[in-house]
Amino acid sequence: MTEPLVRMENIRKSYGRVQALVDANFHVNEREIVGLLGDNGAGKSTLIKVLSGAVPLTSGDIFIRGKKVHFRSTSDAIAHGIETIYQDSALVTQLSIARNLFLGREPIKTPRFLNRMDQEAMNVVARDLLKQVGISKNIPPTTPIGSLSGGERQAVAIARAMHFDSDLIILDEPTNNLGVAETQGVLSFVRSARDSGHSCIFIAHNIHHVFQVVDRIVVMRRGKVVADDIDPKNTNVAEVERIITGMSDKEIHDAIAQGKQPQG
């Protein structure tokens, strides 16, 4: 059996007496888009914060391609190929598309001791990346981020993760507050990332958006993963909503397609 790109085993996270995660098991395969669903307080945000290095786990293990890793910070996660994109995308609205793509990692012209940014090199890469994520409009790479639409900003953030060879791109509510056309654009960008060899975790309250783009759905409830192998092609929104809101093990097995293995 092929080793997953990322595997989290028996993850616990406690805040004093509050258990945010209880023996949670989660994995992402190579070139896979996983939809992570659950009500508010289900534990999905905490799971992602642990995986992205934003908060330390209380106990449990994380593996990258079978090798055990320890994340003390988000920098550790990024060094292991995990990039997280939040709703605001951590973009600087006053700077250009090209500058935002390389923010903190700008190429330097030679001689390097003069410390001059290579703006033309950034522009060339930016043009290519915008095409890769599906932006067909001819947007100059010198365009300030502040003049882009919400969907285009998400595309820039995804392009940045793709360029710096992030193996896993975590998207936290990427379609929130976007219009229909922009939402479809973001979903297209996510598919482009997978087709380029990246894996993605897609977190959204809008289940219909999840169904349109993911390969597999994982559901969390009360800090636990209660179903981790739901094929969106073999189920429907109503059945997944019933799993999210709480059902017995027998009901879960009856609700999803034959051959699934929900976890308790």
Description:
By secondary structure, this protein is an alpha/beta fold. The chain has 3 domains: 1-24 and 48-80, 3-Layer(aba) Sandwich (Rossmann fold); 93-166 and 177-192, Rossmann fold (3-Layer(aba) Sandwich), CATH 3.40.50; 226-263, no CATH class. 33% of the residues lie in helices and 23% in strands. It has 9 helices and 10 strands. It has helices at residues 44-51, 74-79, 97-101, 119-132, 150-163, 180-195, 207-213, 237-245, 249-255; strands spanning 6-15, 18-28, 33-37, 59-64, 67-69, 82-85, 168-172, 199-203, 216-221, 224-230. It has a 6-stranded mixed beta sheet with strand order 6-7-8-3-9-10, with helices on both faces. A hairpin with a 2-residue loop joins strand 1 (6-15) and strand 2. Helix 5 runs parallel beside helix 6 (180-195). The radius of gyration is 19 Å and the shape is globular. It starts with 5 loop residues before the first strand and ends in a 9-residue tail after the last helix. The relative contact order is 0.17. Residues 259-264 have low confidence and may be disordered.
